[in-house]
Specification:
The protein is α/β, with parallel strands linked by helices. Helices cover about 40% and strands about 20% of the residues. Helix 2 packs across helix 14 (about 385-395), helix 3 (about 100-110) crosses helix 4 and helix 8 packs across helix 12. The two termini are about 15 Å apart.
């Protein structure tokens, strides 16, 4: 699959500068987006396309979110693939006026022959602008954009909102999105919301790029451990989960929660009231996977009452299923039908529904739970790996 020469333009963190970024960032880095982009890159490599990489990494601006006023990029190599990370003056607004990107895209364009595709990750206005500028200069350049979030749900600073900059960006996105040639969406519902006017799109809800190493030993069956990992903000249903769990009788039940967010204090307070609840300190990714494998049940309590659930796919769903532990969640509107055979669902109904669903699943036989969990892990590794998910994208951009 090498009909196209592909330049992947994203906001991923090149490995050579990751430690420097971590050291100087005062807040959080966007690791979920970084992980997905590297999975996409691996998928392109596995499909043996002619590939080059170009990154404008997402970091907070100086001096509030980042310690350095200037970010120095440079050339790098990943699995024999050439890449370049842009340099920029890391100040609000000014950082996006970066000539590095245009110059590198032009150099790539003139150094390749045949079909060319500029692949853009996310609805970042600065990346969209440079892509559309190149399209105007080189009309034969195919523009493909992956849309992990709708613009109104993308995070930004309160200052940007206050001065109206965010509204200007959202208007730009909606006014220019149909100038791209093809689209990669995380949910089919994005088509109508973005008013995408042609059928050259594919839905890739996520990519699982890790290794599946199923745990040999579960926790003793007398303990029924329900585990949640991820953001613990109110909109993700964490309060409802905690309140529902506290209504479950039985000393054998445990609720473990690992994550950061506005309800962290609430979880800790309730853990002092109900000793079966445990808030877990920060762990490494390997330790997190081990926790998921040893739990009785993994849960995601976000419900359809949040409109955002139509337009995104919770990445933890793949990680949960791949762990080999049964997963319980609401039947979200973004969920592809093929996942339904591998999940347990909470019927709509709030706290009581969560409580009853947890009890119902935990009372099933260990053999039944193991069979479903094993088939779920097999499903993820077989059909949601980088090679097959990126192949969907390549089929779309090749369908001229």
């Amino acid at each position: 699959m090498n009909e196209f020469n592909i330049l992947f333009l994203g906001c991923f963190y090149p490995h050579y500068c990751l430690e420097d970024i971590l050291t100087n960032t005062k807040g959080k880095c966007q690791f979920a987006a970084d992980k997905l982009q590297w999975a996409l890159i691996d998928g392109f490599i596995q499909n043996e396309v002619n590939l080059e990489l170009l990154s404008f990494p997402v970091i907070s601006t100086y001096p509030v979110g980042y310690k350095k006023i200037y970010f120095r990029g440079g050339n790098f190599v990943y699995k024999d693939i050439k890449g370049y990370c842009a340099s920029f003056l890391n100040l609000p607004f000014i950082k996006f006026f970066c000539d590095d990107l245009s110059a590198k895209i032009k150099k790539w364009y003139f150094s390749t022959s045949g079909k060319k595709c500029l692949f853009v990750y996310s609805l970042q206005v600065n990346l969209m602008r440079v892509a559309l500028k190149m399209k105007k200069k080189f009309p034969d350049l195919h523009l493909c954009i992956i849309i992990p979030d709708l613009p109104e749900y993308m995070g930004c600073s309160k200052f940007y909102k206050f001065i109206g900059a965010r509204k200007v960006e959202i208007d730009f996105i909606y006014n220019n999105i149909n100038k791209f040639d093809s689209f990669v969406l995380l949910s089919k519902h994005m088509v109508d919301k973005l008013n995408i006017q042609h059928s050259r799109y594919t839905v890739v809800e996520g990519i699982f790029s890790g290794e599946i190493k199923l745990a040999i030993n579960k926790l003793e069956q007398k303990e029924k451990v329900i585990l949640y990992t991820g953001n613990i903000n109110r909109k993700y249903g964490i309060k409802e989960l905690v309140d529902a769990f506290m209504q479950i009788p039985g000393l054998e039940y445990r609720l473990w929660i690992r994550g950061d967010g506005e309800l962290m204090k609430y979880v800790i307070e309730k853990s002092r009231v109900d000793m079966r609840i445990k808030y877990l300190a920060k762990v490494t990714q390997d330790e997190l996977v081990l926790l998921q494998q040893k739990a009785t049940l993994l849960i995601n309590p976000i419900s359809n009452k949040e409109e955002i659930t139509k337009y995104f796919f919770p990445s933890k769903t793949m990680d949960y299923l791949a762990s080999g532990t049964p997963t319980l969640m609401y039947r979200l509107e973004c969920l592809p039908q093929e996942y339904t055979d591998y999940l347990y669902f909470i019927p709509n109904g709030g706290i009581d529904a969560i409580k009853e669903a947890i009890i119902k699943v935990c009372e099933k036989s260990p053999i039944e739970l193991e069979i479903l969990a094993k088939s779920a892990a097999d499903f993820i590794i077989k059909y949601k790996n980088p090679r097959l998910q990126v192949l969907k994208i390549l089929n779309v951009i090749n369908s001229n």
